[in-house]
Amino acid sequence: MLANYNNDPWDIETDKITFQELYELWLEKRAAKLGKANQTSLKAAYKHCSKLKNLKYKQIKSYQMQDCIDSCGCGYSTQGAIKNLFGHLDRFAMELDIVSKCYSDLLTSEPIPETSKEIFTNEEVSRLWENEKLEWVDSVLFFLYTGFRISEMIDLKTSSVDLKIQTIIGGTKTAAGKNRVIPIHSKIQHIFQKRVKQSKSGYLFEHNGKKLNQNQYRLTFWAKIMERLEMQHTPHECRHTFRSRLDSAGANKVCIDRIMGHKSKGTGERIYTHKNMEELKMNIELITN
């Protein structure tokens, strides 16, 4: 009896299991190992596959999967998530001997468009410094010298700033990006000191003593700065600019990934390379203007 149970611990009738049943089993047994953002994306993708939920999984063909992608009415991001979901389910189904081939390998989705992000020029960075006294310009400089995302900036608390050793603990979104410790560039240390001293809510960037609202920041504060200084950029382009400036200055690739909250691609870089804070400080200070 024990051998039979170990052979099939989840009591699955492979011939009868439906798309929905496999998805729910995958959620329970496999999805928890994925990052929160990835889980959310795949759960949203499942909603576009409702037409398949009652079909036996082993009878579903690639053209039916492809139809879910083609008829979702969404762009490349959602299409990619649906394709990704089918890939996860196919691999899980093969593991359970429900199917013997992955039809998801035949799927296509709209390609990721080439980035249209424009980095800040050196002249624009200089113009920002010349107008540092203007309200909220310090937030743009914060982005340009930390590489933080707007959501990370808004969530940053004063308690996460160590003015003694000049470091910040912050970051969200990915496992590599969460609660990363990065050095504060010497050019913006005074911005942190001022913001920490003035904070009433406990957040580094606040408005009227309350946590900053992202839409308000984008549509009011950011938009006014861009109009006043005759620039056309998004907050996320600061992050692209920061990485580009580090790369142009010759910063170490692993240090760049650590500061940005990215996972290094090379296995050796991920496992064997350890960069301490002094190395990160040295690399971030390579940005001199």
Describe the secondary-structure layout.
Blueprint: H1 2-7, H2 19-29, H3 36-46, H4 62-70, H5 76-95, H6 122-130, H7 137-146, H8 150-155, E1 161-162, E2 167-170, E3 180-183, H9 189-198, E4 206-207, E5 210-211, H10 214-228, H11 236-248, H12 253-260, H13 267-272, H14 277-284
Antiparallel strand pairs: 1-2, 2-3, 4-5
Helix pairs in contact: 3-5, 4-5, 7-11, 12-14
Quick take:
The chain has 289 residues and is mainly α.
* Radius of gyration, taken over Cα atoms and rounded to an integer in Å: 24 Å
The average pLDDT score comes to: 88
* Global geometry: elongated
If strands are numbered along the chain, what order do they take across the biggest sheet? 1-2-3
Report the total helices: 14
Sheet-strand content, in percent, reads: under 5%
Major beta sheet summary: 3 strands, antiparallel
Q: Secondary-structure element order, as H and E?
A: HHHHHHHHEEEHEEHHHHH
Give me the secondary-structure category.
Answer: mainly alpha
Count of extended strands: 5
Roughly how much helix do the residues carry, as a percent range? 40-55%
User: First CA to last CA: what distance?
Assistant: 72 Å
Q: Any low-confidence stretches, pLDDT <50, length ≥5? A: 266-274
